[in-house]
Amino acid sequence: MTATDARTTAYNVAGLSCGHCKATLTRQIGALDDVLSVDVDLDTGRVTVTTANEPDDALLAKVVDDAGYELTGRAA
Questions:
Q1: Which residue pairs from 4-8 have beta carbons closer than 8 angstroms and sit at least 24 positions apart in sequence?
Q2: For residue 31, how far is the Cα from the chain centroid?
Q3: 52, 34 in Cβ contact below 8 A?
Q4: Exposed site from 20, 35, 65, 72, fewest CB < 10 Å?
Q5: What residue ranges in the chain does DSSP mark as E strands?
Q6: Do the beta carbons of residue 28 and residue 22 sit within 8 Å?
Q7: How many CB atoms lie within 10 A of CB 76?
Q8: Which burial class, exposed, middle or buried, applies to 68 when counting CB atoms under 10 A from its CB (0-12, 13-18, 19+)?
Q9: Could you read off the pLDDT of 7-60 as tens digits, one per residue?
Q10: What's the predicted TM-score (pTM) here?
């Protein structure tokens, strides 16, 4: 993989409020195949995911929902 293959995508997630939320999503999303890094911004409710390939939005939404939060879509 070259650096140009990586994709960084930001998502809006509802329900984030504390360090536990941040740790949970970082761990759950980070465990997915192709995920290189996860950054959770509690202030904006934005989760930025860097993947080796095009991200699977449906899979990410399922993981976020299963963790108890709501992925409301890609951030603008």
A1: 5/52, 5/53, 6/36, 6/50, 6/51, 6/52, 7/50, 7/51, 7/52, 7/53, 7/54, 7/55, 8/48, 8/49, 8/50
A2: 11
A3: yes
A4: 20
A5: 7-14, 35-41, 46-51, 70-74
A6: no
A7: 5
A8: exposed
A9: 999 999 999 999 999 999 999 999 999 999 999 999 999 999 999 999 999 999
A10: 0.91
